[in-house]
Amino acid sequence: ERSGDEPLARSSRYLSFALAAACPPILISHLGRPERFLHMLRVVKFKSPMSMGVWGLVGFSGVAALTAGAQLSRDGKVPEWLHRLEPKPIAAMAQAFLGAFIAGYTGVLLAATAIPVWAKGKAHIPAMCVCSALAGACAANSMLLAGKKDAANSLHKLERLEAVASIAELAVIAHFALTSGSTGKPMFAGERGKRFLVLTAGAGIAAPLVINALGKLAVKRDRTPAFLTLAASALTLLGGYVLRETLIEAGKASADDPREAFVQPL
User: Which of 7, 126, 140, 232 has the most neighbouring CB atoms within 10 Å?
Assistant: First the structure.
């Protein structure tokens, strides 16, 4: 990591490991029986999003555990020699690559199905998930670093990267809403669509951008005050959660619509 970004590197390693460790139990709970997860590791199917996703998760979890262990060693929490087991450049590149893969995996998996609204969004849903995941990662790290003086430069970078990811996410959502036609109604119309618009587009994307911008202007500083960073980050994470919930629930409603069930999405 660059000089001055050590706090960001530390929080990223710990956060990556914590979130990666939570994924296998959630996946196993959805599969119903633990042995089904083990059965998925018996083969590698390059044309199967599910198979690639499981192996991507296993790979990312392994690298995340390695880098988190090395960070614990540097922080003096475990024996010092453990950090020597981490091949730093290779581990960092592998974690970045696998992290990007996992960020888009959910969207690719949904878009590969025959569910009308998901299939219609094959060019949009994966991009939405990547942008939302990047914005959420920036927000989560910002929450961990808020108020730390030695992290001011890193927080500034995170805010800019989050802003770019959020604007791109909003653009993809808007384009999908305009081009999905009647197939996109389960996602963008009715109470679900209104909730999605308010909590994701409004509270989760627009509000954090405004809060971070006004925070700097109001206090005439280079960084947003800690309480505003926490508020903006919490809203970003809320918007990301509602996006994923809306995708799932809209898919269920789309599958139950007989008018769309017999229409092959373009």
Answer: 232
